[in-house]
UniProtKB/TrEMBL annotation:
Keyword hit for Ligase: no
Alanine racemase N-terminal domain ranges (all copies): 7-225
Name by which UniProt lists this protein: Alanine/ornithine racemase family PLP-dependent enzyme
Cofactor: pyridoxal 5'-phosphate
GO molecular function, one term: pyridoxal phosphate binding
Organism encoding this protein: Myroides albus
Amino acid sequence: MAFITLDKNKLKHNFKQLDQLFDNNNIQWAVVGKLLCGNEIFLREVLSLDIKQICDSRVSNLKAIKAINDQVETIYIKPAPNGSIDEIVEFADISFNTELETIKLLSQEAVKQNKHHKVVIMVELGELREGVLREDLIDFYQQVFNLPNIQIIGLGANLTCMYGILPNNDKLIQLTLYKEVLELRFNKTIPYISGGASVTIPLIMNSSIPKAINHFRIGESLFMGTNAYDGSCYENLKQNVFKLHTEIIELHEKPMMPEGEVGLNMTGEKVSFNPEWEDSTNYRAIIDLGLLDIDIEHITPLWPDIEIVGASSDMIVIDLGQNPKKLKVGDTIPFHMDYMGILRIMNSDYVEKEII
């Protein structure tokens, strides 16, 4: 049986380190919990950290969060689909928005539910994912801020997630200037500039982030202990908060070179083979996990001298070399996962989730 574990002590350590960093810099931060995919076991562990805000891009996950703790402030972090407006108002205290007509629908639903819904307007800073174009921002804001039961609490921006456009001082200063222009033009206070994510943490550390950036959304650095700017590991954070464990379901010494006519494999690829494999054997293990659960490009064996050599829909083949650990059927092999690996496998109903 394959299972994924969350190390509660590592998670707590990373949370405390990040919380201290942001507190020292007068920054409020929210945990981005979409990696947990609404899993109740893991959500309870994260919410036990006494977090103030949690973000997600699935309203069903926000509903699960509110069922556990209805006092934590929830944030819906992508433009809202029209079919989910009623649930977003019910389960998200705040939503990130870029479409005027969508905010009008949120306003109507908030009136209907007798609630005030908070909104962060996302601004396009070059990543070309979500965001109001900068030249349209003043007109957009003017049409939104008088809508009933809608409170604009911030401006935000997203960088890196699609094209890898990195945040820098210049881009974030642009965001702060738009806040100042809107506040002066309309005599309104905008409390947040949500310009930070895991990729922006290095700008705090080298003192190059504008002081007005006062809100961050953090997922990767909390759960991975990594610097999203360059992929390196933070020395003061723990890695492998999540770990994948897979059971060996077959183990034999086999020839390294396949035998027979070579065609396309199940993923449509034609595999090439090293001529040096001829007349060589090694120990090969099959683990109870496959492409249905995870992409093998996003996992790495934690033990040295072990290599993934192939995968099908529900099995992965591992090269154990001469099997120096004397592994046998029923033993487990641990793996490191990157962010996308965890996100994919958390969506698999076939992989158990456990707290350690």
